[in-house]
Amino acid sequence: MSRKGKKYLDVAKKVDNMKLYGYKEALELLSGLKTANFLESVEVSLKLGVDSRHAEQQVRGTVVLPNGTGKNIKILALTSAKEEEARNAGADYVGSDEYVEKIKKGWLDFDMIIATPDMMPKLGRLGKVLGPKGLMPNPKSGTVTPQIGKAVEEFKKGKLAFKVDKFNMINVGIGKVNFDYEKIKENFDTLLKKIIELKPKESKGQYLRRISIALTMSPGIKIDPLLLQKELESK
Question: Which domains does the chain have, with CATH numbers?
């Protein structure tokens, strides 16, 4: 069992692990939990009242965070006819078959693939490599599109793709610890409103089951999900 360091234990005293915080109080508390000597991410974790084994209860989508994520993501744009468009939009790598071959050989120096539809038959054969790492492009996440330049530009500016996992969880980063309170709040509100909007009609009972927010190296702050949903839906 790993032991927590002194800095972690010191900031952990600031968080009541038995308490469900109001989300504004949780966001205010967050900035005081910094312990790392690098720029930590602000991470949100949600447990949803869905059964992700059923296709109709898969919660996935995209949202443009008003203040971006603070992360400079490396984008591989795969297209056979719109390379200049993708390059001008800011893609880090642009090409087609040559990059498919590089991935086959183990190259994965990117955070996201955005592809035009014509590339998907070739990428489909790499499902065992890309799928488990969450790198397979998908139309529902906006990463398969004929408008590849627009997609690259949006993701570079802070568009976020999310998907419920097999444990009915969504885990995403919504900023950096150097973001001020208002920027984190705007990003948090935007994400949660989108997830609430995507509630499947087949989901019964409480939809937002558990929510916490944390820095990369900090303890999580538990947020009252019922109070949060009520506050966001009243706006």
Answer: 6-68+159-233 (3.30.190.20), 75-155 (3.40.50.790)
